[in-house]
Amino acid sequence: MSLVDWTLDGVLAALLPLIAWGVVTAASLDKAIMLFIVLGFVSALAWARLDAIDVALVEAAVGSGLTGALLLSALPAIQPRLRRPSSLARRAGVGALLAGITIWLGVTTLRLPARSGGLAELVCENIEQSGALHPITAVLLDFRGYDTLIEVAVLLVASLAVRAVQRPRLRPGRRGEPTSEPLASFLNLLVPASIVIAGFLVWEGSHAPGGAFQAGSILAGCGVSLQLTGERPALRMTLRVRAALVLGLAVFVALAGAPLLRGHDLLDYPRPWAGPLVFALELALTVSIAVILVTFFPGAPDRPEPPARAADSP
Amino acid sequence: MHELRMGVALFLLLMLLPGLARAWRGPTLTDRILVIQLFGTCGVAVLLLLGGDREAAALRNVALVFAVLAAVTVIAFVRFAPSEDVR
Amino acid sequence: MTLQELAAAALLFAGAFFFLAGAIGLLRFPDPCTRIHALTKADNLGLGFVVLGLAVEAPSVVLVAKLGVIWVLVLVSSSLSSQLIMGRAQARAPRTDPRGPT
């Protein structure tokens, strides 16, 4: 580590709390959201500097890309309710709660053993038993596949919950006014590029940083762009969409449960097939994660409904 | 060359400070979305510079993800950002 | 320093210069229209020169292609973003604005 490297890390370490301070003290919600997106960019850089490339990829895709768009899409629904500033007692209560959590986390961190090797060695020694060559993929889909299985289920439930509470005024949009020409040509480039890059990241995931979550969020970003620009109507719950939503979880459950029939343990993939199976699972998860993420977005805001077609919306 | 790349990356990180100042001052949301664009582009450049080292080559994929998702935020911004901030 | 390294260094410095120009412009210019003008210099030329500087040293053609793809993606999204942002700003600016629609 040379002086330049140290300074680089120092600047990153200084930027993060600076921006975070900006987020919490911003005068209005929209400013806070904008700064939060900036925070996402910088934390992706910080993860990259920490050699946590998988985390950096997720932060870049989910943290700064999709979360920003999601927060912005929630803005019209939340902002009208925020006219009145919350009471001092409430603010003090929330502040005390957060301070408590922070102190608790800090104390826990300090009490961790200073030099713990963690499980990294164990993973690397046994990686040949898993279906992947990249340790993180091996942990996510094989050694700790149980966690990932439940996470995917949580995502699916979250998506269903969003469908349940989505406001009726944010009905699925329609193909609306013709998209402007630059926008149309951009989308013509974005769609194939997203598909290729998502495929590339899934492929990378078997032996290097990458995988279903990152690839799924790129596809979702593309889908959200199509939907928000009105180029495509918002997702309706057709049979195909439903199938795509549950595909990842269904394949995961099938793969996890199949070994039980042969008297093995849950998630104990048959050895010679582990590689291809994990890859197929990643592909299925990519599709489902992408569709699930898209369902989080309300779609293009409704334009005034032409009276003749008012009846056909759900 | 490692030093040079890190030096340029550091310089680009410092370029985020004026951007941050603009984000803080605003005055309009338009200014702030411009800052987000600057951070995105700077982020791509920094990641590519860091990825110039052989052992950090996978960082180029992070840059790729930044690049392909760069417009999503702006598209959402144009759709949803409140309108009261005309100059 | 070989000629290759020298070229790479020069290109990286050129990139850094345009990022500097963009950042200063973003901070110092008086209104969003001029600020976006400054910003696009960082997007297009700044990143472009950095990519060129890295490409000079790249060990394989595939890598050069990948760097090129990243640059083109940023270029295309940044020009679209600029258009969308200014379109929004102008559509919402009051008609009586003395500067008028530019």
Average pLDDT of chain A, rounded to a whole number, is 79
Question: Strand-and-helix sequence of chain B, N→C?
Answer: HHHH
Largest sheet geometry of chain B: none
Elements of chain A, N to C (H/E) = HHHHHHHHHHH
- Helix- and strand-based class of chain A? mainly alpha
Radius of gyration of chain A over all CA atoms, rounded: 22 Å
Spans where pLDDT lies below 50 across 5 or more residues of chain A: 169-176, 302-314
Q: What's the number of structural domains of chain B?
A: 1
Shape, principal axes of CA atoms of chain B: flat
Brief descriptors of the model:
heterotrimer; A: mainly alpha; 2 domains; 69% helix; globular; disordered C terminus; B: mainly alpha; 77% helix; 0% strand; flat
Describe this structure in words.
The complex is a heterotrimer of chains A (314), B (87) and C (102). With 314 residues, chain A is an all-alpha fold. Chain A folds into two domains: 1-78, no CATH class; 126-302, no CATH class. Chain A is built from eleven helices and no strands. Chain B is mainly alpha-helical. Chain B has one domain. In chain B, helix 1 runs antiparallel to helix 3 and helix 2 packs antiparallel against helix 3 (29-50). Chain B is flat and about 45 Å long. Chain B starts with a helix and ends in a 7-residue tail after the last helix. The mean pLDDT of chain B is 84. Chain C is an all-alpha fold and 102 residues long. Chain C is built from three helices and no strands. Chain C has helices at residues 3-28, 32-57, 61-92. Chain C is elongated and about 55 Å long.
Topology of helices and strands:
The complex is a heterotrimer of chains A (314), B (87) and C (102).
Chain A: H1 3-25, H2 29-49, H3 53-78, H4 88-111, H5 120-125, H6 135-143, H7 145-165, H8 181-205, H9 212-228, H10 239-261, H11 274-295
Chain B: H1 2-14, H2 16-25, H3 29-50, H4 59-80
Helix pairs in contact in B: 1-3, 2-3, 3-4
Chain C: H1 3-28, H2 32-57, H3 61-92
Helix pairs in contact in C: 1-2, 2-3
Q: How is this structure best summarized?
A:
The complex is a heterotrimer of chains A (314), B (87) and C (102). Chain A is an all-alpha fold.
